[in-house]
Design goal:
226 residues, alpha/beta, Alpha/beta knot, Trp Operon Repressor, Chain A, 2 domains, five-stranded parallel β-sheet, 9 strands, 38% helix, elongated, binds adenine
Length: 226
């Protein structure tokens, strides 16, 4: 999979994609992630990519030309499955969307800033709009990083134990069961006996029971989706 991220703040996310599992995915050749500075696509001598909104509204708006130029340049090299705009008024991201997007080959993520982007970009160039939740961030970078992370980790081979992606919380609209590691007794805080029993069927039964109990208690809304 190849992901191009368009941003006015490349330094904000470069570090994120250069460590841990995102780095390993790229080192293994399973994903490539390129970050593009939108300011490299403006003719403006001050490298400005925003301007005042028509209509006298407050705030600044990201201009059409640099975004169009950047996306057109990228499209000369690849065909894209989706051109995604990260925005608080997009479709709220969830695990089924991550699963679906992880099947794609080439994606563009456009990070918004200021008051928003010129609406013509959304009308003519964007194919999907995603929000990571009902709150407003200062820009789309953290949202792009979150969405890219959740997609890339689903690519087969990215995380060593493929099973572990399938057993994540939300994969079947259930929260995952609790997990424990050594020591089995820390200051009297003990691990459930069944997990030390080695009895596979009983452990599976415990896992399902815990998973249902946690979902009922913490996210009852998920049970309606099953
Ligand atoms: N940009 C600002 N807030 C956002 C959000 N909640 N989701 C996606 N992009 C955003």
């Amino acid at each position: 999979m190849h992901i191009d991220i368009i941003t006015v703040l490349p330094e904000m996310i470069e570090g994120f994609f250069n460590c841990s599992i995102m780095k390993r995915a790229q080192d293994k050749g399973l994903a490539t992630i390129s970050i593009h500075n939108l300011r490299d696509y403006t003719e403006d001598k001050h490298r400005r990519v925003d301007d005042y909104p028509f209509g006298g509204f407050a705030g600044m708006v990201m201009k059409v030309e640099p975004i169009d130029k950047c996306i057109s340049t990228l499209k000369e090299k690849r065909e894209y499955d989706e051109v995604i705009f990260l925005t608080p008024d997009g479709e709220v991201f969830n695990q089924p969307m991550a699963n679906q997007l992880s099947l794609n080959q080439n994606l563009i993520f456009l990070c918004g800033h200021f008051k928003g982007i010129d609406y013509r970009i959304r009308q003519h160039l964007i194919t999907k709009e995603i929000s990571i939740g009902d709150y407003v961030l200062t820009g789309g970078e953290i949202a792009a990083a979150a969405v890219a992370d959740s997609i890339v980790r689903l690519i087969p081979g990215v995380i060593s134990d493929e099973q572990s992606a399938l057993s994540d919380s939300f994969q079947d609209n259930l929260l995952a069961a609790p997990v424990y590691t050594r020591p089995a007794d820390y200051k009297g805080w003990t691990v459930p006996d069944v997990l030390l029993s080695g009895h596979e069927a009983k452990i599976k039964e415990w896992e399902i029971k815990e998973s249902l109990e946690r979902t009922k208690r913490l996210r009852p809304d998920l049970l309606d989706k099953r």
